[in-house]
Amino acid sequence: MTRYCTPSQMKELEKRAVETGISYYTLMENAGECAAAFILNKMEHNGIHGTTAILCGKGNNGGDGFVIARHLADMGVPAVCIMMSDDAGTDLAARELSDLMGRGTVPVMMLSDGKENVFDVLCDCAVIVDAVFGTGFRGELPVDIAEVFSFADKCAAMKIAVDIPSGGNGQTGSVSDGTMHCAYTVTFGMEKIGTVLAPLREYCGSITVADIGIPQPCVESMPGLIIRTDDDFVKQCIKKRPADSHKGNFGRLINISGSRNMPGAAALSTKAMLRSGAGLVKLASVESVVNAVSASVYECTYMCLKAAENGAISAENADMLSEEMNKCTAAAIGCGLSVCDDTKKVVLSAVKNTDIPLIIDADGLNCLADSIDIIRNAKGRVGVTPHPAELARMMDMSTAEVTADRLGTAIRFNALYEASVLIKGTPTFVIGSENSYVSFTGNPGLSRGGSGDVLTGIAAAFTAMGIPVTEALACAAYVHGRAADMAADKLSQTGMLPSDVIAELPFVFKELDR
């Protein structure tokens, strides 16, 4: 199982390790020793000989750098520390700097002594190590440090980042101007989620996780660590079908979707539900949608609803729908629903008056944007599947703000409303109250209308089959992406359609032996 953490989670892991009796000093010593061994290994592997220049910040990342310098010197590797500030900014870093200078085996120079002197050293060294800022960095690099990194980028030396390339955001994956491109990153304890996100991943090079002594029980008991979904994860969630199975074993699912102008959303989501294993599927929609979908979808049943003047589902159906939903094991609502007073009442009633798991997407979310607090008091477990603009409306933020930190926004939404969140994008994050996941499947061919309807259908089917909502969303993101990758291989990213993704679902399940 591959797990990632946010910078704040890493701090918590270190804190928990200290509570078991391991000191912060020991953690720093372990980190520096591991990094030094890593650097020596890469020098030997690449046939590199010469001086290692270690750029050190004033915080604990710089403290790691001082430990690295000491160990390299002990191993016979010439090293020089270049301090980006005039003093150490933490007690730990000051202790390590004092120890290093007391030994007198590694020269220490200051950036403030002159940039040209620093540039001369960087030109002549074989390896440049970035130990300036840690994973908690936010914002923009100071101008003088950015200039040093920009210069180092042009040097022939091998570049290695300690924990994270300075200037990179360990949560969002954003980078500051001047961030140095590294061939390798040695990170401590656990890989930080930002390092696998664009554009930061392009600056990290090959990433290696070093064990610095955080006890495994601290990791296992840490909530919210981000699990990377894979085939094994999906197999654990979706069990093989027993030989004596019948349709009742795999859930009863109702799909409340569609409107006169958007019948395709109802068709796509319903077909995806059927192809994803739900035992019984019912489409509840207006007559025009039912007529359109039933002409080609034979495996589900239909519930014909009264239409409002605009062709959307009328609010008159709300009580009847709530009654029908409570006969099911799960429900999906929102695909192609449209947003009007009638559909707002339908969605509010569905959340308020039913106690089954509910997957809400698209217009279902838009209908709730003005009354989102109702989700917190839902009787059943709720999963939402927004794209950044939809999440922005629910969180009263700009789309740009959400896009800049999809993960952080989803975490805050989950904390506020206690709903599982699948935030669309590359990669896809799923945040639950207990577990969180990331999926790297999928491709730009999904960037078209209807893809979200297919995803909702898959997630709702898994939920109806009894998979917990958070895990159902995580499985859906992975399976949806796998099917999209198969479709792209056959048809191209440009030519593939959401319906082609549905057609590939059986082959995904076949590969998974499900």
Oligomer state of the chains in this structure: single chain
Q: Mean pLDDT, nearest integer?
A: 97
Number of domains: 2
pLDDT < 50 runs, ≥5 residues: none
Query: What is the CATH first-level class name of the largest domain?
Result: Alpha Beta
Structural class: alpha/beta
Descriptive report:
The chain has 514 residues and is an alpha/beta fold. The protein folds into two domains: 3-219, 3-Layer(aba) Sandwich (Rossmann fold); 228-511, Ribokinase (UDP-N-acetylmuramoyl-L-alanine:D-glutamate ligase, 3-Layer(aba) Sandwich), CATH 3.40.1190. Helix content is 44%, strand content 16%. The strands form two sheets. It has a twelve-stranded mixed sheet with strand order 8-1-10-19-18-17-16-15-14-11-12-13, with helices on both faces. Strands 4-3-2-5-6-7-9 form a seven-stranded parallel sheet, with helices on both faces. Helix 3 packs parallel to helix 4, helix 18 (451-464) crosses helix 19 and helix 19 (469-491) packs across helix 20 (498-511).
